[in-house]
Design a protein that fits this description.
about 350 residues, mainly alpha, about 0% strand
Length: about 350
Amino acid sequence: MATIPLRRDRHIEALRGLACVLLVAYHVIGNDPEHGMHIAAHDGWRLFTELFIHIRMPLFSFLSGFVFQAIVADRTALSTAFGKKLRRIGIPFVVVSTLFYFCFGLVNHDFSTPIWQIYILPYEHYWYLQATMLIMAALLIANCLAGRHARAFMTGLFPVACAIFIIAPTFDPDIFAVDSALYLLPYFLLGQLLRVWSLNARIGDVPARRHVVVARFGLLVAILFALDLAEYIGLNQLNFARQSALGLLFGLSACLFLFFARLSWRPLELLGGYSYTIYLFHVFFTAALRKVLGILAPGLSMGVYFAAALAVGLGLPIVLHKLLIRSRWTALLLLGIALRRPSDVRARDIEPRPAKATTT
């Protein structure tokens, strides 16, 4: 088992792990009655997926924004940053989405979608990588142009991004998941602003301040969660749609509450260390399990199936990561990791870095 290194950002890994659990659970249950466990609308399982829609991928994007270095000094640094992001996110996006296209096309006997579209338009859950690359590229360029005013630029951009989020413009065609990039942008920017204004240290490292912030955002999240639940079961007419003012407030508040709560649990930290690999490959394993159990145990209860699929979707990608990291080429092509020295193999295996990106 990989060892979780002792460092100050263990709570970041724990939150990545939590986001992974929510993501895999969502795909196991399915986004509609035609997928996953084939759950009908307003079933208890569907309630689970719907109530976390404002936390699941927003939390991933918030954390990606926090760890991302969006401010670059000059064009050389800009070029270097672009190269790193294309390697870490772009290469696995192309390779793994292609594998997904052919594997699931063969299994389902469906190649109706032209393969070139999967690289340009949103495709399955890999839209998140497209959207995140778009956000990162835009911020890197904009901040390079803004120069010493980069922090002020991103601060001013945040309310604009929130307004666009609520307006929810759509593009046809949705090139490189630009719709989703605008959906994720407020969360990504919030994480980035915590970083560039050193709010993690100013608040998070001062217990008295942190406890006040956690209490206030915790109360707000609890109220919004209760209102969202009431809306779902028909007790009020509030709008908690995916892109709504209340949905955004819920998502931003939840991200801040979880971030400053400093969640720390070693199983989640372990999962968080492999979050990128889990994101990329969990659907391969959960889909395979569904096929196998459909043949060997067709009458299996939903609860048992859910637990088994969740364990497989979280655990087997970690095993796969340990295999892929043994080869320089598989590490690069499937994980976006560049191994240069033999010693890197052990270092990366112990502490894999998730893409600053990981919908759904």
